[in-house]
Each structure stands twice: as structure tokens, then as C-alpha cells.
């Protein structure tokens, strides 16, 4: 396989697809880092707090790595309006609102973090050198996030009835966002990257790999993500990989854009 | 939530240094112990880290207690 080192060796449409994918990946990691961080003193045990804090730091670090690759593309969609316009953020809808409890954090870890990891694994096997040279370390760090998710899902699934019921609710809320992320059968933005060799897998193969990756976490439990989900693609946005635009609360939007610190001369 | 068990954490930075004790974690399973050890003691670029359940450790010379308790007469 010939590696591509120069973005100009990709066509303009391919670069646009790559820029959109990198924005969706890095924005989702940024939001996931924020959501983990909001719970880094609220976990059920001190070690869990430390783990949430460490995972938050890794997610923000990974967002930074991906944005470094993104900023080399002329098609980088992040413009001046990013600080004021929520529609310029391509994060997954499941992270629009804060986690309301530890169960939400665990399912965010199990379903959203794993979705990103499956995508990055496909990019590591792809041909875009600015990504492949950075992703091995990122994926090594993600191994512990997977172990964390698996251990917590199994622990909560064997807990009291009300915890299992809450698990089911959260899974059913988050799962449609994750499946919709892969897009419809055509015009999904991922197949274009697969055709260019940037991703080693097509959208359908990626979605299947994702389902195969998360399914073992739920084996033996009375909970599991729905397998026969029908997605209504009306209003699905290919660039943002989601329905609609983010509806972050104001505090969250100010936090991720650094809006309250503009006077200090720092920002995104 | 279950309170878990203590695991001892050992790690080393280079091949030519021995595994050293870096601390403990409280965990309800081996998987939690692995994750918690990794995230709690991440201040170094370790090349190896292991956890051992404290209950699995076999004393050779037992530490004598600092204070001896006597039954009340």
C-alpha cells in the first residue's frame, strides 16, 4: 500500500470528506472529554474518579492530535463562527447533554468511545500517513478505556433491578445516535474515504465491526443494544454525521469554545 | 457498591531496573484493578506494570504488630 503524506495527493472532494470526518471525530472526543471530566469527582469510588479523570485527559489529547491533522487541510470546516454557532460543531448527539449519572458515563464509554476507536482502527489500517503515524499510540491508550467500559457494564448489569432498568434506558437513548453516525447506505461520507484508501473499511463494514465490538460487553446480561434499529434519515447531516445540530447548554458551549476566556487571549 | 479488595501495584521504567512497588488500588475485579492501576499510577512511562491481589501474597517473615492488644481481664 502506498502511503499518502501530502494532502494535495487527495482530490478536493476526498479532502473535504476527510476534513468533515476529522472534525466529527475530534469534536466528539472533545465533548466526551468534557463529559468524563464533569464526573471526575462524582464516581462511586475514588479509583473510578481517577479513571474518569485520566480518560478525560486522554480524550482531549486525542482531539488535539486529530485537530493537528485537520488543520493541515485547506477544507478544514472550522471558521470564525465556531465560537458562536453550534451548527459548526460536529459532535455526536448523544453528548449534547451532560451525563446525568454514572450509568450514562459508562454507556458513553462503552458505546461512543468504542465507536471512535473502531473508526481510528480503520484509519490506522488506511493510507493517510499523517494519521497512521499518530494513531498507534492513541489506540494503545484506548485499550484501557475498553477494559473500563467492559468491567463497568458487567458490574452494573449484575446490580439491582433499578440499575439494570436505567442501563437499558441509557443504552436505548445512546444507541440510535451511534448507529446513525455511520450514515445511510449511500452518501454517508465514509465510503468516500474508503474509496480513497484513507479508511480501510466501508461504512457498512465499519458499522458491522462496531456492533461486533460492543456486543461482547453485553453478553450474558439481560441488557443489550437493539439489533433491529430502523433509522429515519430525514434531517441527517453528512458533514456533522448526525441529525440536527448540537443543542449544548450555554455553559457547555462557553466551556468548549473558551468563550469566557477570550479576554485572556486564549481560545480553541 | 461492593467495596472490593486491595491489589498491590508494581512497575518499572526500564528493562534493567527491577519491578518496584508503586502503590495499591481498591477494586472489585481483576479488570478494575488493571484499569485503576494504569490510571492512578500514570506519572511515569512504565514499560511494565502488574497488579497482585494482596490476599494472594504469601508472607515469609510476618510483620509484628506495633501494639499488642490484650484481652480485658
TrEMBL record, chain B:
InterPro entries: PaaB_sf
Protein name, entry field: Phenylacetic acid degradation b
Source taxonomy: unclassified sequences, metagenomes, ecological metagenomes
